[in-house]
Design goal:
single chain, alpha/beta, 6-stranded parallel β-sheet, 17 helices
């Protein structure tokens, strides 16, 4: 079978690379209008940083995995077409700030309808609001005498930083389709692809609407747990409790479990906030305002946590950070990725810059160009921002270290060396709770964590 994927981003690229790697009998072509991105997939370095992805792409590329800008040819040759394009939060018109912007999904559907010459299975891989398949199907069937299309929902459940591992050994694969004979035949065709390496009992099949809604619900539940423990972290700081101890105590309850109970500066990434706001919009659209307000509070708490973290920095540094050098370690939204979308570091840096601080940033995978775009500052130096080559350079002459991403390398830094090169008193604000605060204090640091009393 020929498989085409429209969209060579964080989902489409790795997913198709894994399918090609595991299913050598299928030809997989990933297409995108961005020639620079396609060039990077073909020659490297890859536009997506994920541990293990380079090796998988290298093994399959040029054999049964191809990257191209020739979208029309790939559509015509494919029997199965994945739509894996961006669905950002809509920032204009009806639903601005909450609803998903589906213009790219619609453009894909129209392109497929115009170009296809025979029957196709069209798979929604992008994260979409429930009942989007209805619109996609209407567009695809607009040519009365044209080919027939079956629309499936196959949402991704990847965690950035562990995408290769998640693809190779997923908790589940979810496929939604119509209950008709043709619809179930299409579902079975996609099941057969995944069943090449995924156990059948892990492949769940539902109707289209359940599949689309399950993706939004899964992300909402995960984000809810993070906001819940972050809300408790504020209470811990006020009362002298330790949020890690509280999380461990409640996590040993089998009804709750330990996952996603790590307090931090807040969650980021391309999915959680976008999907929750989409869920809020859907609830409002279907006349469920109480449900909408419930889920919206998860985002409100996340915003509160980011700003609360920055306020603590300012308060601890004698109520002013004006003209003080602050070393921000980590700019990606989590470790083992170069993705900065909705990264808490962006909000922390903007808040600090608004207080007229001088910010020195180090991240092992994020470029100065990306920092410039995310902070909205063309001339970083003029804007009070320096992007450093290593954490020691960032910390030199700094008043404080601010940990915003949980990169493993930050745990093993020579903090004695860092302390000696900082201004005194030297502060550490660990927004990820990855450092040993007691050892830092022994070195002379004034050290703070999230959800810890820290002797303020």
């Amino acid at each position: 079978m020929n498989i085409c994927c429209i969209g060579a981003g964080y989902v489409g690229g790795p997913t198709m690379a894994m399918i090609a790697h595991k299913c050598p009998k299928h030809k997989v072509t990933v297409v995108d209008i961005d020639a620079k991105r396609i060039g990077a997939w073909n020659t490297g370095p890859l536009p997506v940083f994920e541990p293990g992805l380079d090796e998988i792409v290298h093994k399959a590329r040029g054999k049964n995995l191809f990257f191209s800008t020739d979208i029309d040819t790939a559509i015509r040759e494919a029997q199965m077409i994945f739509i894996s394009v961006n669905t950002p939060t809509k920032m204009y018109g009806v639903g601005a700030g909450k609803a998903s912007d589906l213009q790219y999904v619609e453009a894909c559907a129209r392109r497929i309808a115009d170009v296809a010459r025979d029957d196709k299975i069209v798979v929604e891989k992008s994260t979409l609001p429930v009942r989007t398949a209805e619109s996609v199907r209407a567009i695809l069937s607009s040519h009365k005498e044209g080919p027939k299309f079956q629309v499936l929902s196959n949402p991704e459940f990847l965690a950035e930083g562990t995408a290769v591992r998640d693809l190779e050994n997923p908790d589940r694969v979810l496929i939604g389709g119509d209950p008709t004979v043709a619809g179930q035949a299409a579902v079975n065709a996609l099941v057969d692809v995944y069943a090449t390496w995924v156990k059948r009992e892990k492949i769940l099949t539902t109707n289209l609407w359940s599949s689309e809604l399950s993706k939004l619900t899964a992300n909402a539940f995960l984000a809810q747990r993070i906001s819940s423990i972050n809300a408790i972290s504020a209470l811990c700081e006020a009362t002298g409790a330790d949020v890690d101890e509280v999380a461990h105590a409640i996590g040993t309850d089998s009804r709750i479990g330990p996952k996603f109970l790590k307090s931090s500066v807040g969650f980021g990434g391309s999915c959680f906030q976008k999907d929750i706001l989409n869920l809020v919009y859907l609830c409002e659209h279907f006349g469920l305002p109480e449900v909408a307000r419930y889920w919206e509070q998860v985002v409100t708490m996340n915003d509160y946590q980011k700003h609360r973290f920055t306020q603590r920095i300012v308060r601890s540094l004698y109520n002013t950070v004006a003209n003080k050098r602050l070393a921000v370690l980590g700019f990606a939204f989590k470790k083992d990725t170069n993705d900065t979308r909705e990264s808490p570091a962006i909000y922390v840096c903007k808040d600090l810059l608004a207080e007229r601080a001088k910010v020195a940033i180090y991240d092992p995978q994020v470029t100065a160009e990306r920092v410039s775009i995310d902070l909205g500052i063309k001339d970083l130096a003029a804007g009070g921002v320096e992007v450093c080559a290593d954490p020691y350079e960032a910390a030199k002459g700094a008043h404080a270290l601010v940990i915003c991403t949980e990169w493993d390398e930050f745990k093993s830094l020579d903090f004695g060396r860092i302390y000696d090169n900082m201004l005194q008193p030297a502060f550490v604000f660990d927004g990820r709770n990855i450092l040993d605060l007691a050892k830092l204090r022994e070195l002379g640091f004034t050290a703070f964590g999230v959800g810890k009393s820290n002797g303020e």
